């Protein structure tokens, strides 16, 4: 009986993680890909104009801290001369932001 309960809990957790991953990809596609590109290379016209980073690059990933990524998603980014580089996505829940940061981590090649 304990094994059945444990297996059911594991499958439930796996389904939840899978759903969050799907939501993160959907959020990426709807909110981020316009500038960062579908694969996270920052190679879109807008991404190149704004200097979007290539999230597939191992060095970029190593330099990116989760806290900074979370802050950028929640608060947006501005240049030194106060030009908006990325608008804030403050309507995302804390879980959605966390899942989006994890999604960005998964873009590393």
In short:
The N and C termini lie far apart (42 Å). The chain is globular. It has helices at 2-36, 45-50, 58-63, 66-75, 94-105, and strands at residues 77-78, 84-86.
CATH evolutionary superfamily = Cytochrome c-like domain
Order of helices and strands: HHHHEEH
How many helices in DSSP terms? 5
Mean pLDDT: 87
Q: Rg to the nearest angstrom?
A: 16 Å
What name does the CATH topology carry?
Answer: Cytochrome Bc1 Complex, Chain D, domain 2
The global form is globular
CATH architecture: Orthogonal Bundle
Strand content: under 5%
Structural class: mainly alpha
CATH C-level? Mainly Alpha
Bin the helical content. Answer: 55-70%
Number of domains: 1
In whole angstroms, the N-to-C terminal distance is 42 Å
Number of strands: 2
Query: Main sheet?
Result: 2 strands, antiparallel
Low-confidence stretches: 13-19
Order of neighbouring strands in the sheet with most strands: 1-2
Can you tell me about this structure?
The protein is mainly α and 109 residues long. It has one domain: Cytochrome Bc1 Complex, Chain D, domain 2 (Orthogonal Bundle). Helices cover 63% and strands 5% of the residues. It has five helices and two strands, in the order ααααββα. Strands 1-2 form a two-stranded antiparallel sheet. Strand 1 and strand 2 form a beta hairpin. Helix 1 packs across helix 5. The protein is globular and about 65 Å long.
